[in-house]
Amino acid sequence: MKHFEVVAALVFNAGKLLCVQRGDSKYPYTAYKYEFPGGKIEPGETPQAALAREIQEELAMTLGVGEAYLTVHHTYPDFAVTLHSFVCEANTRHLTLREHVDAQWRDPADLADFNWAAADVPIVEQLVKA
Q1: Measured between alpha carbons, how far is residue 1 from residues 7, 29, 78 in Å?
Q2: I need a surface site. Which of 33, 55, 70, 90 has the fewest CB within 10 A?
Q3: Residue pair 13/105 in contact by the 8 Å Cβ criterion
Q4: What share of the chain is helix, strand, coil (3-state, %, to 5)?
């Protein structure tokens, strides 16, 4: 089974957290699910550099990547991920959706309202408890 090292940004702006929704996918269990933006770590890349690159590619945003938040190991039916999340601060809420179909800035307490990708659920649970 394929395994991917991936990163996710917990993007905060004025107390709100960025949630993005995936579009259609070859894996139905990830299609149209909400997630924290990010992506795969390329060979030779640090997690922080991968996150800054992915956010620029997916959302046309420049972020300050802060401290590590939570690492999640999750196995989907067709692949496994190790998801490293980082707290990030955005100076603006302006973004351009290049890979997602929706973006919302929400209070962390309201995150349970979304249908999340399974690998993101432990992060959501910890954020809601905080």
Answers
A1: 19, 17, 7
A2: 70
A3: yes
A4: 25, 40, 35
pTM over 0.70: yes
Using alpha carbons, list the distances in angstroms from residue 85 to 14, 24, 25, 26, 101: 19, 23, 22, 24, 21
Residue 37, amino acid: P
> What is the per-residue pLDDT across 68-99, written as a single tens digit (0 to 9) for each?
999 999 999 999 999 999 999 999 999 999 99
Measured at the CA of 48, the angle between CA 42 and CA 49, to 5 degrees, comes to: 50
What CA–CA distance (Å, rounded) separates 106 from 104? 6
